[in-house]
Amino acid sequence: MEKEHKHKKVFVQGPISPDFVSKSIASHQSKTTIGAHAIFLGQIRADQKTDGVVTGIDYSAYEEMAEKAFYEIREAAFEKFELTCMHIYHSLGIVPTGEISLFVFVSSPHRRAAFEASEYIVEEIKANVPIFGKELLGEGGNYVWKENK
What we know:
Blueprint: E1 11-13, H1 18-26, E2 36-43, E3 48-49, E4 52-61, H2 63-80, E5 85-96, E6 100-108, H3 111-128, E7 131-137, E8 142-145
Parallel strand pairs: 1-5
Antiparallel strand pairs: 2-6, 3-4, 4-5, 4-7, 5-6, 7-8
């Protein structure tokens, strides 16, 4: 089985568009060893905070460290689960509420591995990748640092 197992750039500027997601899905139709895909989309919520409602998140990262952490997560997932390919994209910069900031797309011959790998990858990203988010509040320029939950 051929595995897509390369060091890939993860960060994209701004929100991840539905068009980008759909093109990623469509590009896998020719890979006939795949029996299942699992997709996780992290979307920005309009949470109520003490100082106002979240209107977006401004993401920053220690990019070199973060890319290394993403690579290590990918390698561990390929070792732990039977995967055919994997794609991870995370936003940098401002992502408004309702938009996508994290796109994890895993493919496997079987559904269980795809489901388990997707959850594993998202939890590892939250726990181990140095990405920081300022939750933007209202239109006054106020913000609070986001907690990873």
